[in-house]
Amino acid sequence: MQQALPIFSAEHTKAIDAFTIQTEPIASIDLMERAALKCSQWLMKHYSVETIFKVCCGFGNNGGDGLAIARQLLEHGYKVEVFIINYSDNYSEDFLINKKRLETLFPRFLMEVNDVKHLPHFQKSDVVIDALFGIGLSKSLNGLAADCVNQINNSNAVVIAIDVPSGLFVDRYTDKNSLIIKAEHTLTFQSPKLGFMFAENSIYVGNGHVLDIGLRVSEKLRSEATTFYLTEEHIQQLLKPRAKFSHKGTFGHSLLVVGSYGKMGAAIMSAHALLRSGAGLLTVCVPHCGYEIIQTSVPEAMALVNGNEFIQFSELEVNSYSTIGIGPGIGTQKDTQQSVKVILESFSKPLVIDADALNAISLNKEWLKLIPQNSILTPHPKEFERLTKNVSNNFERHQLQIEFSKEHKVYLVLKGAHTCITTPDGKSYFNSTGNPGLAKGGSGDVLTGLITGLLAQGYTSFEASLIGVYVHGLAGDMTKEEKGEVAMIPTDVIENIPNAFKRLMNV
Question: Which of 42, 184, 353, 375 has the highest count of CB atoms within 10 angstroms of its CB?
Fold first, then answer.
């Protein structure tokens, strides 16, 4: 089975480069040329020959990439100005080779900058190529390099970063006071970088584009990978075809414990999404105030009534259910909290726990030990902080998420622009689908229903988490195409869940 796309550290990326050079075999300068060509092709696809490119290069291999890109654009008749920012004299060998090539072919387009007063002036109409620093950066920018970055950021020009925005650390938190290129696009090589997954870096990365440059990864390094980026091919391999003689019992009986007075919408959206996942049977446990609502709105579901305006029960027969999803719209009344505890104590199979069920647990931290192994928790960042502690940045939160999954032996789906699933064995999977149109109340309820329905069908907690998150995002992307990010709503997304599955299953 094809793995999700590994996200490698800077150190591992250097090892992959070396392995590719050794085993292909290929000279490092030719590998640089190949990477540059992928960038040039992307630039030529998106910008006309009338575009003025201003390429700012450092002294390392990132600068060498920039020089090669500039030469290739010039060879295709583009207007290019190249600036080597002389902040150091520590040249890489491949940089010097590409500098010589450019000097030989296009000497009048190459300028060296030795002090701040000779830095180029950038116009709003320019496209600036940032090739100052790559993944090897070890300290914050200063001196002439910092001055150059500052001038680029203040120019209002379109900025395109090569591999990594200069000044950004890819494997650790970059202080918000550091000078970092603010790119509109980042053309990164082979796989995304961990730092690209986090909200605080979005103003620097802009739109990330992964360019396949044919790097080879050793089996040892691949086996050691712990962080991944979900791909359509990987999700397709996880999906199971439906047998001709299957029946409703084949695909499980789910119980949703959802809704309260004023929040029955959460129950309806969860239920509809669950049924769209392919689950065979659904029972929805709601308070009495929601009985007629759920029976009318979701005729495919059976209704179980407990409590008047809020969920309330001291015991519940749960053994007949394949899985249980609990939380959307239930509130945190004392009796409802105790109902959450009843389920935690009564159900031994994996649960899907969301929203107010998570909040109930955060108010009773001793209940964490009651959560069945391999359960799936689906918090947004604030709900996660209530379960754990406040953090200062997303790198810290990601590490805390990994530790939480390992300690409690659960799958944790931390919702965000790149929703991250962490596993009990310490692995992380970042989602590649979805858009800001999903940032609306009710989107999480849809996701809970999807994951619960998949789990009921016999998918493992790992499979249900990955498929649910990916399909939810893909349905959101399809909805964006129809309705736009601003006007789309979660019920629109539910309507596109069938289209998402059709695409993934090639039907």
Answer: 353
